[in-house]
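Q: How would the structure tokens look for this protein?
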Amino acid sequence: MDNPYYPPGSEYAAPKRTSIGKWILWGCGGALLLFLSLGLACFVLIKGAMKVGDAQLGPACSEYLAMVGKKDLSGAYKLMGEAGKAEISEARHNAIIGGITEKLGPIKSMKVESVETGVDRTGSWGKITYDTEFQNGPGTIHVELRKESGHFKVVGIQYQSPLLAEAINKALAKPD
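A: Here is the predicted structure in token form.
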């Protein structure tokens, strides 16, 4: 095939043609390798952060939930941080947590779902969420913590479960 840029018999040789498809394939392969490497690095960092967060926050959660499991609600309340005690009285805490645990039953198993930590103008905080299997069905426990005197303390707890939603809906549906 004649080259339109160099007439036949020209002293300049026609440039070699390279396969552009080969370069595209190498480029796509390199980009894929880069994205896979970044994804793996993110996965490892997130898993590592969750382990560190659980190691920092988990003991306070475990101690609080163990007291609740033993039905020592006053003991659980005493483990709470000052910010939590400022939000709820012991009597109200015991009534709410007692009612929830009565409906859900004891915890059969828990698995860390997510961990968040940070620092704000009042100090270090953490949030840990557990996928939980209660005796009477599945649920989720969200625990909020604050660092006080060098240790994390529970300042808030939220239970979520279809059983609780059903109980609340029944209570709201009752005519006065």
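The chain is about 50% helix and 25% strand.

The radius of gyration is 30 Å.

Upvote if useful.
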